[in-house]
């Protein structure tokens, strides 16, 4: 066992002051008439003794514990969405707060237990997060305190943080238009369930609107839109084989997420077509594998770390309700080029900088 923890009384004794005077100095409270030299004695004594304040006692006075609860469905164990936690951890640490993380795995009974446990610890607020961008039901137990929804919305009026999927859809379409693609742009990944049920997905409808609005503004209609039962590589592969059976092959393919694009790469490679010389491919999410494909996949990146940071800022500042949309910057790699015989326009504004070191295969 280590030595006993130093107390406030120990610090006061070492500094030659009363406990009350030492406490006022250590807590930065106004009103003390102690000299600067006495202040220095208190701080020196605290450092020499390794004094740490009693957080539980302080929380009783201030009603603050410098802790934030991060409650999610499967964010912590999902490699792809882990940036939400990284961003929140960084922002909490910068504000001298600790993040308490719990994951429910969609188990309602465990969620209730976990929420009761964190509320018993008197957290300063709760970030309620989802792995997939969607609408969810907020547990009533946490509504009595400060709550921010992360990667999610709710019918309850609460501040929430989402990626700007609609803006990303517009950026993706405008990128192809700027390269000279017009009447042969195909879209794969239409999915009525994702587009119509916000409890499954908010991203699908938003991305679709952004794409369509940008194309319509340029007087362009998609060559075709292919429906997929899920946004997985095998469905991207099947959709691409369908596209290649059309009388006129597309000059560019927009994929609703990167996993679909992985299947597109395989299907095009099997028939000897080259990306981007024969067909350009562009997508959403910036999955870690996107930078390692050959050629690297141009994709609108989900800003998970920035979203996690924003959630902590909203929670601690407490001055905002409603939506906070975080931009999805385009990671420009080598999968998009002008169609043969076409001169591309200058890069559209707001696209974001190119990804770093993509030519050497080093992730951003």
UniProtKB/TrEMBL annotation:
The keyword DNA-binding is assigned to this record: yes
Superkingdom of the organism of origin: Bacteria
Species this chain originates from: Micromonospora sonchi
SMART domains for the chain: HTH_LACI (SM00354)
Record keywords: DNA-binding, Repressor, Transcription, Transcription regulation
GO terms of molecular function: DNA-binding transcription factor activity; transcription cis-regulatory region binding
Entry-linked CDD domains: HTH_LacI, PBP1_sucrose_transcription_regulator
Domain HTH lacI-type: 6-62
Lineage: Bacteria, Bacillati, Actinomycetota, Actinomycetes, Micromonosporales
Stretches for region Disordered: 336-364
Protein name: Alanine racemase
Keyword NAD: no
InterPro entries (UniProt xref): HTH_LacI (IPR000843), LacI/GalR-like_sensor (IPR046335), Lambda_DNA-bd_dom_sf (IPR010982), Peripla_BP_I (IPR028082)
């Amino acid at each position: 066992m280590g030595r006993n923890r130093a107390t406030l009384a120990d610090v006061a004794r070492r500094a030659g002051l009363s406990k009350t005077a030492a406490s006022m100095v250590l807590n930065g409270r106004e009103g003390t008439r102690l000299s600067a030299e006495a202040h220095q004695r208190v701080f020196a004594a605290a450092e020499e003794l390794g004094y740490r304040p009693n957080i539980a006692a302080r929380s009783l006075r201030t009603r603050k514990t410098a802790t934030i609860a991060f409650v999610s469905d499967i964010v912590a164990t999902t490699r792809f969405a882990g940036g939400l936690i990284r961003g929140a951890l960084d922002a909490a640490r910068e504000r001298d707060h600790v993040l308490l993380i719990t994951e429910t795995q969609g188990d309602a009974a465990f969620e209730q237990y976990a929420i009761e446990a964190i509320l018993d610890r008197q957290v300063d607020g709760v970030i309620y997060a989802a792995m997939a961008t969607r609408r969810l039901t907020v547990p009533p137990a946490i509504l009595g305190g400060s709550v921010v929804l992360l990667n999610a919305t709710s019918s309850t009026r609460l501040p929430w943080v989402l990626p700007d999927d609609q803006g990303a859809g517009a950026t993706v379409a405008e990128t192809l238009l700027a390269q000279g693609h017009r009447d042969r742009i195909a879209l794969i990944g239409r999915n009525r369930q994702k587009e119509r049920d916000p409890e499954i997905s908010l991203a699908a409808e938003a991305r679709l609107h952004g794409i369509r609005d940008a194309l319509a503004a340029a007087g362009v209609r998609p060559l075709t839109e292919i429906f997929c039962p899920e946004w997985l590589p095998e469905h991207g592969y099947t959709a691409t084989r369908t596209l290649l059976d059309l009388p006129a092959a597309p000059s560019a393919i927009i994929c609703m997420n990167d996993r679909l694009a992985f299947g597109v790469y395989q299907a095009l490679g099997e028939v000897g077509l080259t990306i981007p010389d024969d067909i350009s491919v562009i997508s959403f999410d910036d999955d870690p594998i996107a930078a390692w494909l050959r050629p690297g996949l141009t994709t609108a990146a989900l800003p998970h770390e920035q979203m996690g940071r924003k959630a902590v800022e909203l929670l601690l500042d407490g001055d905002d309700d409603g939506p906070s949309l975080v931009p999805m910057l385009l990671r420009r790699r080598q999968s998009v080029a002008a169609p043969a015989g076409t001169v591309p326009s200058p890069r559209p504004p707001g696209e974001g900088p190119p990804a770093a070191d993509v030519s050497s295969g080093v992730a951003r």
